[in-house]
Design a protein that fits this description.
Length: 705
């Protein structure tokens, strides 16, 4: 297969085209140009996109990682040549499924290619599964070490050991293994199933014998239980006969009690005939009790009435004054106090007097005596007057403080305000006192009138005692009537119980009470039901198990089947061991064939440095240089040499498994030195297939030129 060109709307690629030539194609581009994206696009176009994969915290699913950056639907096209036919394959997004629509047709005629579909496209075109192509024909620098894969192992093994890829030996081994597993695989298979069936039949026979024995025991227990129930029934008949005799005696005693109760009731009825009716006595007694409660409550309320509230008085200095006069006096004193505080004349005259004294002293010094004397007299007069005025203001302040008890004028009216609040409370208390006293007096007078109407000249307590005596006699009469009725009911109940009872048929030697006997009979009945139920269950289980002769016949057949399956299992095991030995012998040729080709490629790649190479079944490599006498594991080599070892192995595998498929390399030569890189480019140019080398360095293209 050879690719002509690829057109992609995939990840950062937006309707971009990559054209390819036969042989070696070197695409040189800087990092983040899209080299790895083209590689992922080729895999997705050939094998499809796994839309079921989910993103995790450490990795993105391909459907999200390569979603077009432009927001357009994901789609792509590849023009290629396959088996001499020019073919175009296309994949488009369908119903929000990335690359969910597939088509393959001949490029010129447009006729569909029936051999290709969305599921088998890559495997048909390349001849291998996706996992094999990723490990053999798709090489990235990070994935150079070749790891074990079942599909890769199967194809390599079939190719090397049989010369083709039919897989007949594998299918034979799988068939034998399937047959062996069908016989026995751990605890599953026909043989364990037959053994379990034999064990089941044996268990059924054991269960049948155990159930038969238990049924015999249950039947014996039922016979014993029924004999004990017969004795209890005879004892119950004897107890019933004795009880009937006792009931006859109790009936006679009940009749005598009834007659005596009726006599007492008739005597009390005659005594109550001369008394007031019971309803009248109850009404009178009720009214007197209610009156007594109301009378006692009113008297108690009258005793608990509060005292007359005390009228408040104005405190000094307002004692004996009206509120309005006190307020006017406070306002006048406040005005006087304010005027004294605002008076500035005494201060001015004092300053002028002091100034005059200073001037007179100056004139005396200058010996101007007459003006100095006049100025001195005037200054002294001003000072004396100002001091006298200040003394009067101070006297007024002291008088106000003595009068009101504080020097602040804003507090002088507070006693008046407090008095007004107290007086308002006094008025409310006085009103409430008068109202409560009036209500109690009215109710007291009404109850006095009611007392005169109910009791007349008698005391209420005496009348209450009288009516209580009347009610007591009526209650005694009612009690006698109830006793007579109870005696009649008791007599009727006993009479209903008295009926003729036959004596027991057999002598009775048991001493249980009637209750114990009833309980024992109930226990016997319940136990009999339980035994019958268990017997029915056991008999049903025996019927479900089947006939014992049939079980013996089934056991013989199971044993014979187990013997046949054991022979088959042993034969299949021998066949598998023989086939494994044969395959092991053939597989000894597997590693040398691949190793020989990889060794030749490695020798050319390292310019003759490494002359020998061996490969293990897990694709582990050991190599030896020209001067080394022993082979060393790849871990002993440098990173660049390790890349060359595994690249040689991958190229050898690709020649064996994908001879016609393109070889894709993504930065696989990054750690090669210039000489080995140039040798590797020559190897790739000589490969008889299309090679696509993506690289971020220019030296590969220069070496190819």
């Amino acid at each position: 297969m050879r690719i002509y060109k690829m057109t992609a709307t995939f990840g950062k690629l937006q309707n971009e085209t990559l054209s390819l030539e036969p042989g070696l194609n070197i695409i040189t581009a800087q990092n983040e140009w899209g080299k790895s994206t083209w590689c992922a696009f080729l895999i997705a176009m050939l094998y499809g996109l796994d839309t079921r994969a989910k993103s995790t915290k450490t990795s993105l699913a391909d459907k999200e990682r390569y979603a077009p950056w432009s927001g357009a639907p994901m789609e792509g096209r590849i023009d290629l040549n396959w088996n001499g036919r020019d073919i175009t394959i296309e994949r488009r997004t369908r119903r929000r499924v990335p690359l969910g629509e597939f088509s393959a047709y001949e490029t010129e005629s447009g006729l569909p290619v029936e051999e290709l579909n969305a599921g088998n496209c890559g495997e048909v075109l390349l001849g291998v599964e996706q996992s094999v192509f990723r490990r053999a024909g798709f090489i990235r620098q990070a994935d150079l070490p070749l790891t074990q894969d079942e599909a890769l192992r199967r194809r390599l093994n079939a190719l090397v050991t049989t010369g083709d890829e039919s897989g007949a030996a594998d299918r034979l081994a799988e068939n034998l293994k399937s047959l062996k597993n069908a016989c026995r695989y751990n605890r599953t298979g026909l043989l364990p199933q037959a053994e379990r069936e034999r064990e089941t039949v044996c268990g059924k026979m054991e269960d049948y014998d155990r159930l038969d024995e238990q049924c015999g025991n249950l039947k014996q227990r039922l016979e014993e239980l029924r004999d004990w129930a017969s004795q209890l029934n005879n004892h119950a008949q004897a107890l019933e006969y004795a009880s009937s005799q006792e009931n006859a005696q109790r009936l006679h005693q009940a009749k005598e009690n009834l007659e005596q109760a009726e006599v007492e009731a008739r005597a009390l009825e005659e005594d109550c005939a001369v008394l007031p009716p019971r309803e009248e006595a109850e009404q009178k007694e009720k009214e007197l009790r209610a009156f007594r409660e109301s009378w006692n409550m009113v008297r108690l309320e009258k005793q608990r009435l509060p005292q007359h509230p005390e009228e408040p008085q104005l405190p000094p200095p307002f004692t004996g004054m009206r509120v309005e006069d006190a307020k006017r006096m406070v306002r006048a004193d406040v005005l006087r106090y304010t005027a004294d505080q605002r008076a500035k004349a005494p201060t001015v005259f004092l300053i002028l007097g002091l100034a005059g004294l200073a001037g007179a002293m100056l004139l005396m010094v200058l010996k101007v005596y007459i003006p100095a004397a006049v100025a001195l007299a005037a200054a002294l007069a001003a000072v004396i007057w100002s001091l006298r005025e200040k003394g009067q203001c101070r006297a007024h302040q002291e008088a106000f403080q003595k009068k009101y008890g504080c020097p602040e004028p804003q507090l002088w009216a507070e006693p008046i305000e407090a008095y007004e609040e107290q007086y308002s409370v006094y008025q409310e208390d006085l009103k409430a006192y008068r109202e409560s006293d009036s209500d109690v007096d009215v109710r007291y007078m009404m109850l006095q009138k009611k007392r005169d109407a109910l009791c007349g000249a008698q005391e209420p307590e005496m009348l209450i005692d009288y009516w209580q005596q009347v009610l007591k006699k009526w209650e005694i009469y009612s009690t006698a009537c109830r006793e007579a009725l109870r005696a009649k009911t008791h007599y009727d109940a006993i009479a209903s119980l008295v009926h003729p009872v036959e004596p027991p048929a057999k002598p009775d030697s048991l001493t249980y009470s009637e209750g114990d006997t009833t309980r024992l009979l109930a226990d016997c009945s319940a136990e009999e039901q339980r035994l019958l139920s268990r017997l029915g269950q056991y008999q049903g289980r025996m019927e479900a198990l089947g006939d014992r002769a049939a079980l013996e016949k089934q056991l013989t057949a199971c044993s014979q089947r187990v013997a046949r399956l054991e022979d088959t299992y042993a034969a299949v095991s021998i066949a598998l061991e023989t086939l494994a030995d044969a395959r092991a012998e053939l597989q000894r040729r597997f590693a040398p064939r691949i190793s020989k080709r990889a060794q030749a490629i490695l020798a050319s790649m390292t310019v003759g440095r490494y002359h020998s190479l061996t490969m293990g079944e897990d694709f582990s490599l050991q190599a030896g240089a020209g001067e080394e006498t022993t082979l060393r594991d790849s871990l002993w080599r440098s990173d660049g040499t390790m890349d060359q070892l595994y690249l040689a192995l991958r190229l050898a595998v690709a020649e064996e498994l994908t001879p016609e498929a393109p070889l894709v390399l993504d930065d696989a030569l990054v750690r090669f030195d210039d000489d080995r890189m140039a040798a590797t480019i020559q190897i790739l140019k000589e490969m008889p297939k299309q090679v696509i080398l993506f690289t971020c360095q220019s030296r590969e293209a220069e070496a190819a030129r």
